[in-house]
Amino acid sequence: MASPHYRNFAVAVYTRVYEVNKMRDLRYLAENFEIMSRHVKIAKVYLETHRDMVVADEGVIRQAKEYLEARGVTVEGGITITVDESNQFETYCYTNPEHRRKLQELCAYTARLFDAFILDDFFFTSCKCPACIAAKGEQRWTDFRLRLMTEAAEELALAPARAANPNVKVTIKYPNWYEHFQGLGFNLETEPAMFDALYTGTETRDPVMSNQHLQPYESYQVFRYFENIKPGGNDGGWVDPFGSFYLDRYAEQLWLTLFAKAPEITLFDFRSLQRPITPEHRAPWQGSGASFDFDATVAPYGLPDGSLAPEARWTLAAGAAFELADRFLHELGNPIGVACYRPHHATTGEDFLHNYLGMLGIPIDLHPTFPAEAHTILLTEAAAYDPEIVAKIKRQLLDGKTVIVTSGLVRALQTRGFSDIVELHLDGRRAATQDLLMGFGVHHAERPITVPRIGYLTNDSWEVISCLVGVTGTPLFHSARYGNSTLYMLTIPDSFDDLYALPPAVLSRIKEIVTQDLFVRVDGPSQVALFAYDNGTFIVESFRDTATEVRLVVDERYTCLQDLVSEEVLDDAEAITDWRGQPTGKKGFALALPPHAFRAFRAQT
Fold first, then answer.
1. Which of 111, 196, 353, 582 has its CA 20 to 30 A from that of 64?
2. How high is the pLDDT of residue 3?
């Protein structure tokens, strides 16, 4: 008999209040839950009590809860704090006495029905009504909202819930737009300690055909970031099927969440998961070895006319993704990466840059506090929010540690003493380039890129990689000695996606420095990500639409790489030398990756 649960994680399904109220007719619940359960091993169902000022009927909730629990399913509550989600996500107004009273009543009501509930990711405020304007006074909207929502969390959500049920567990779910939280009142400094647990929105959808343009790597990175904010208290990741034109993109979000070691993953939502799969959801690269096999997944549901049976729903794709990931997740250790720093409430001109860097094959380990213990730190413009950041950089370098900064951070620190480390000047001039000088060789980007011009003092600092601009140039990757170590600067193009145009040799040189403390590196084109773990295991995944060749570079103490799924062994490696032909202590294994495919390996000694 098949296990009712996955080995490495649990799966939950979230149900909106509209569908909860439909469960008055138990046939609606029973028929749809039965189909879902054929595809996915469901361990938990969230039943929502409120959304858009609609409240679920208590009798219906109790009936649905009884039905699900009788089938071994854990049932918890959920609240979405919106007035009208269809009206640009209209949230509650937290200066409105009626809304404040309503939320108190909802949290108490939900706590009486459940021993645990989650606040869906609308516990923020975008309200600028006359009352909010008056209450804000001379404060910035960010400062006003951060204080307002911290107070609302305690007085309107947690206190009434715990008064109604002293044992209730209250979880706050955060969405994917973490760079902008502070402006809408999500308080990552105060709320994680107040709530019993966090939950992470790991949906990234289509990176091009969506307003947010979130990069796929964020589905992994944002979970790790929130885990670093509340270690051991990030209960899971949450993915919806929206904005994924092909099933591959949906599956990728699911297993990236699991690669981040999420203990639970929630599928949103009961209604959307009933969407039928159609032939249009088959990606153009299918049939070329992609990790999600559309044809094999839907084959049992194919009809003679080429269409699919109604039972072929999006849960079918989720189930296929889960089964694949569950085969090897237990082999992975704890995720590791390059230490990065984003202070609480940081405002930045390099929004979500860490996810673009992740798409270059740089594993990111983002922290809310300065990771002084790390031997190598990568700092983006977000770090400028820390008033002591220059002193902290100096301390790292004096201690013999490596610091990599972006051009955006240098620009932000020009008047804050950064020149005491190295004199670099950004005066607003730009340069367009396609040719990159590294050593004595010129490498060509896929297209012209535009970068800020960087001025520096000859012989005080040195270009590692140069952008050639006619008969002049400007640094792309730069180095400067200070104290007992070296500081590096990575120039960030005006459009972050121009990083993807950099040639493989240039990316490899950058990663040679940035990922120097990791046991593995992936050399190759952009949009091939690396996920590394502390027990010698790693995953390499291509998000490219065509097949690509990469080189897996590991410490020379490793003799071979073993695939965690197929058990195939790669043992044909070549020694890696530097530009002078000197040994580096590394060896490389060639690997062909199909489009939208991943491989998981263990490096063997």
1. 196
2. 64
Rounded CA gap, 150 and 189, in Å? 10
Q: Which residues contact 166 (CB under 8 A, 6 or more apart)?
A: none
Count other Cβ atoms within 10 Å, centred on residue 53. 12
Q: State whether CATH 2.60.40.1120 applies to domain 520-604.
A: no
Sign of CA dihedral 454, 457, 459, 461: negative
The C-alpha atoms of residue 45 and residue 16 are separated, in whole angstroms, by: 11
Number of alpha helices (DSSP H) and beta strands (DSSP E) in the chain: 17, 32
**pLDDT of amino acid 252:** 98
- Token pair for 295: 């044809």
Q: Give the whole-angstrom CA distance, residue 488 versus residue 326.
A: 39
For position 1, what pLDDT does the model report?
Answer: 39
Quick one: CATH architecture of 10-327?
A: Alpha-Beta Barrel (3.20)
> Which SS3 state, helix, strand or coil, does residue 463 take?
strand
Sign of the CA dihedral running 214, 219, 223, 224: negative
Decide: 216 and 359 in contact? Cβ < 8 Å: yes
Q: Which amino acid is at 420?
A: D
Query: What is residue 2's predicted lDDT score, i.e. its pLDDT?
Result: 52
> Are 254 and 240 a contacting pair, CB within 8 Å?
no
Each residue's pLDDT tens digit, 259-303: 999 999 999 999 999 999 999 999 999 999 999 999 999 999 999
Angle at 263 between CA 260 and CA 264, to 5 degrees: 105
CA–CA dist 604, 453 (Å, integer): 44
Between CA 218 and CA 489 the distance in angstroms is: 23
Listing DSSP states for 514-535 in one string gives HTTTSSEEEESSSSEEEEEETT
Helix/strand/coil (H, E, C) string of 423-434?
A: CEECCCCEEEEE
**CA geometry: angle 135, 137, 139, nearest 5 deg:** 110
Provide the β-strand partners of residue 456. Answer: 424
**Locus of tokens 């590294």:** 438
Q: Which residues of 397-426 are buried (b: 16+ CB within 10 A; e: fewer)?
A: beeebbbbbbbbbbbbbeeeebeebbebeb
Give CA 379 to chain center in angstroms. Answer: 18
* Long-range pairs for 479-484: beta carbons < 8 A, 24 or more residues apart: 480/421, 480/422, 480/424, 482/394, 482/397, 482/398, 482/421, 482/422, 483/394, 483/397, 483/398, 483/399, 483/400, 484/397, 484/398, 484/399, 484/400
Q: Measure the N-to-C terminal CA separation of the chain; round to a whole number of Å.
A: 38
Taking residue 436's Cβ as centre, other Cβ atoms within 10 Å add up to 23
Positions in the chain whose pLDDT score sits under 50 = 1
What is the CATH code of the structural domain delimited by 335-514? 3.40.50.880
Please tell me whether the overall predicted TM-score, pTM, comes out greater than 0.85 for this model.
yes
Domain ranges for the chain, please list them: 10-327, 335-514, 520-604
